[in-house]
Write a structure and sequence with these properties.
Keywords: Lyase, Magnesium, Metal-binding. This protein is mostly helical. The chain has two domains: 17-214, Glycosyltransferase (Alpha/alpha barrel); 241-532, Farnesyl Diphosphate Synthase. It is built from 24 helices and no strands. The protein has helices spanning 12-15, 18-41, 45-54, 62-79, 89-101, 129-139, 147-163, 169-180, 188-198, 206-240, 242-245, 253-263, 270-293, 296-308, 319-343, 348-370, 377-387, 390-401, 408-418, 425-439, 454-461, 467-491, 497-513, 523-532. α20 runs parallel beside α23.
C-alpha cells in the first residue's frame, strides 16, 4: 500500500509556520493509517465502509473497501448470506445498498424474507426504525420494473413518516433528513457535513472518535482547497470581460464551480475541477445570450460561427458574442491540448460538435418562443436534453478524466457513442436536470429570460388543467429516469468507473441547484457552499 500523502493547502494559521505544517501533516497521515488498520481489526466491516463513505473519506481506502465488498459478494453468491438466521432488515438492506452502489448485480429477491404471500412487507417490521431507514435507503438503488423495491420505498416511507412524532429529537432529525435526502441520490461531501454532525463523537468506541476526528480534518483541508480553486476560477472569469459586456447575465463563478466540486470529489482533482468549470460557466453565459440578448438573426450567425469554428466570420456580430466565441474556442483548445498531452488523443472535433449541438438546441428554442410556438412535450424534451448543457459538459468531463481505452481511435469511438446515444448515462443525467429545472415555477434570481417548460407543453398537449397532476407526472418521470441511471451505472462495462461516479454525482447535485424558495433564492445551494467552502 502506497503511503498517504497530504499535498493540500493548510489554513493561514499554519501557512507561516513550517513546524505546525509538519505536525499537521504527520497527524493526518497517521490517522489515515490508523483507520486503514481498522479493516483488519473491526468486526462490523460493513458499518465501517458505510461510515467512511458517508464521511467522504472513501478515496483513501478504495482498495480496502473493494476487498470487503468483493468478499461479501462472494459470500452472498456462494452461501446466500442474506437469508436464514441472518435475515435482519437493517443488515440485509445495508448489504444490498452497498453492493448495488459498488456495481454488483444483487437481486431484489433478497427482501422476500420480509414479505408475506401477497407481496407486502410484514407489519412486524414497522417498529424497527433503524431497519426501516436502511430499507428506505436501499430502495433508491432500484432499477426499472423492480416491484419489490418500489414496495420497499412506499412501505418504509409511510411508517417512517408515521413514527416521526413518536421518536426523540436527534433520531427524528436523522430520519427527517434521510427522507428528504436519500444517501444514493444526494451530494456526497455536503452529506458528509450533515452525517458528521449526527455522528456520536462522545461514543467511547475508538472507531467512532477516530473517524470523527479524521473527517473534521479532511473537511477543513478540502474547504481551504476549494477556496483556492474558486479564487482561480474568479480570476479566469473576470479576465474574460464577459461580465462587463453582459450586465444582465448571470455572474456566479462560485455557483458554477459547485458543479465541478460535486462531480469530482477526490481532493487531488483540483486542476480538473478548475478546467471543467470553464465550459460549465460558458454554458450559462451562452444560455443567457440566447434568452436575454441576441436577436434571431444574430443568434443564427453566432450558431453558424460556433459550428464552423471561425472567429473571422463574426464581423457582423455584437462584441459580446465575439468575446464569448473566443472564450469557447480557447477553453475547448486548452482542454483538448491537456487531453492529448495526458491521455494521448485529441477530442477537439467532438467537443466542437458538442458546442454546435448545444447552440443548435438553444436556437431552436429561441425560434419557438420568438413566434409563440408551443412544442409537443416529446419534441420539447428531446431538444431540452441538449439545451440543458449536460451532454456538452459531460463530454468535456469524459475527456478531462481520460479514458479506459489505450488507443486514440477507440477513445474517439467511445466519445461519439456516449454522447449520441439516447440510452446513455449522459442522456439520463440531462433528463433529470431538464425535468427538475422545469418543475419549479420560480426562476433564477439573476435570470429574467424565458426558455419554456416541459410542464407547460405537457399540460397543453394532453389537456391537463392541474399543475399538481402535471407535477406528479414529472416526478414519476424523474423517478423512472433515476432507475435507468442506476441500471446504466450497474451495467456499464466499457466506461471508466470514475466517469460513471461523476455522472451520478452530477445528478445528485441537480436538486440543490434547482430548489428555489418563494424568494427566488437557492437556500440549499447557499447552505452547501457554506458547509463546503466557508
Amino acid at each position: 500500500m502506497a503511503p498517504t500523502s497530504l499535498n493540500y493547502p493548510l489554513s493561514s494559521d499554519y501557512a507561516n509556520n513550517a513546524q505546525h505544517q509538519d505536525a499537521f501533516r504527520l497527524k493526518y497521515t497517521t490517522m489515515v493509517e490508523e483507520v486503514r488498520r481498522l479493516f483488519d481489526n473491526t468486526e462490523d466491516k460493513l458499518l465501517l465502509v458505510d461510515t467512511i463513505q458517508r464521511l467522504a473519506l472513501d478515496h483513501h481506502f478504495t482498495t480496502e473497501i473493494a476487498a470487503v465488498l468483493r468478499q461479501l459478494n462472494d459470500a452472498v453468491s456462494n452461501n446466500n448470506t442474506f437469508n436464514g438466521s441472518d435475515c435482519q432488515l437493517y443488515g440485509v438492506s445495508l448489504r444490498f445498498r452497498l453492493l448495488r452502489q459498488a456495481g454488483y448485480h444483487i437481486s431484489q429477491d433478497v427482501f422476500t424474507c420480509f414479505m408475506n404471500s401477497k407481496g407486502e412487507f410484514k407489519n412486524i417490521h414497522t417498529d424497527d426504525t433503524k431497519g426501516l431507514l436502511a430499507l428506505y435507503e436501499a430502495s433508491h438503488v432500484g432499477l426499472e420494473e423492480e416491484e419489490i423495491l418500489d414496495e420497499a420505498e412506499k412501505f418504509s416511507r409511510h411508517f417512517l413518516c408515521a413514527k416521526l412524532p413518536q421518536i426523540d429529537g436527534d433520531q427524528a432529525r436523522v430520519v427527517k433528513y434521510a427522507l428528504q435526502n436519500p444517501h444514493h441520490k444526494s451530494m456526497g461531501r455536503h452529506m458528509a457535513n450533515e452525517f458528521l454532525e449526527n455522528l456520536d463523537c462522545e461514543n467511547e468506541v475508538e472507531e467512532i472518535s477516530l473517524l470523527h476526528d479524521l473527517a473534521k480534518m479532511e473537511l477543513s483541508i478540502v474547504g481551504i482547497l476549494y477556496q483556492e480553486e474558486v479564487l482561480q476560477v474568479v480570476e479566469w472569469w473576470n479576465g474574460l470581460g464577459l461580465a462587463k459586456e453582459l450586465k444582465s447575465a448571470r455572474n456566479q463563478p462560485m455557483k458554477w464551480h459547485m458543479w465541478s466540486m460535486a462531480m469530482l470529489l477526490h481532493p487531488k482533482l483540483s486542476f480538473q475541477r478548475i478546467l471543467l468549470t470553464k465550459p460549465i460557466s460558458l454554458v450559462y453565459i451562452v444560455d443567457d445570450i440566447f434568452d436575454l440578448y441576441g436577436t434571431i438573426d444574430h443568434l443564427t450567425l453566432f450558431t453558424q460561427a460556433v459550428k464552423r469554428w471561425k472567429i473571422s466570420e463574426t464581423e457582423e456580430l455584437p462584441n459580446y458574442m465575439k468575446i464569448c466565441l473566443k472564450a469557447i474556442q480557447e477553453t475547448t483548445q486548452e482542454i483538448s491540448h491537456m487531453v492529448f498531452k495526458e491521455h494521448g488523443w485529441n477530442p477537439l472535433v467532438y467537443l466542437k460538435k458538442m458546442w454546435g449541438d448545444l447552440c443548435d438546441a438553444f436556437l431552436i428554442e429561441a425560434r419557438w418562443f420568438s413566434c409563440g410556438h408551443l412544442a409537443k412535450a416529446s419534441e420539447y424534451l428531446e431538444n431540452g436534453i441538449l439545451s440543458s448543457g449536460v451532454p456538452m459538459v459531460l463530454a468535456h468531463l469524459f475527456c478531462i478524466m481520460g479514458s479506459s481505452s489505450s488507443s486514440s481511435s477507440s477513445s474517439s469511438k467511445e466519445t461519439e457513442q456516449l454522447f449520441n446515444d439516447t440510452k446513455s448515462i449522459s442522456h439520463s443525467v440531462a433528463m433529470i436536470l431538464r425535468l427538475l429545472d422545469d418543475l419549479g415555477s420560480a426562476k433564477d434570481e439573476h435570470q429574467d429570460g424565458y426558455d419554456g417548460s416541459y410542464i407547460e407543453c405537457y399540460m397543453e398537449e394532453f389537456l391537463v388543467s392541474s399543475h399538481k397532476v402535471a407535477g406528479e407526472h414529472v416526478m414519476n418521470m424523474i423517478s423512472n429516469t433515476w432507475k435507468k441511471l442506476n441500471k446504466q451505472c450497474l451495467s456499464s462495462n466499457t466506461l471508466p468507473q470514475s466517469f460513471t461516479k461523476a455522472c451520478l454525482n452530477a445528478a445528485r447535485m441537480v436538486p440543490i441547484m434547482y430548489n428555489y424558495d418563494e424568494n427566488h433564492s437557492l437556500p440549499l445551494l447557499e447552505e452547501c457552499i457554506e458547509s463546503m467552502i466557508c
